[in-house]
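Page 42, continued from yesterday. The earlier attempt failed because a stray header line got pasted into the input along with the sequence. Redoing it now with the clean sequence only.
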Amino acid sequence: MRWRQARWLPAGGLAAVLCLAAAAAAAENTAGPIANPFEGRADVVNEGRTLFNQYCAHCHGTNAYQGERPRDLRRLQLRYGSEAPRIFYETTSNGRLDKGMPVWKSVLSEDVLWRIFTFLETVQTPP
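This time it went through. Structure tokens are written below.
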């Protein structure tokens, strides 16, 4: 009988872990869309431009004018539509090392990243 009980304890523990993982995944999926807290704030644009030119221009061009399409951030809205804020946030936070994009989350605050995005929203190529 003891062997049988010992055998069920790990299975019960595994079930508990799986339930917690499922709950965490469900909570992650129910989190709302990522949104720019500075959206529409003209007072943030110039600071965002300065920050962009300080941290991003070496790859993405001064004021986001870059001739290479993969690095042309003036096309975010065309490429990603309403998902542009999420794509920007995930890419700057997690990087894309395979594409040469560093992880900025440990270097720049979320506030700075969103100020940069607010500037980028003002230079989007029209459809």
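Notes: DSSP finds six helices and no strands in the chain.
Reminder to self: strip header lines before submitting.
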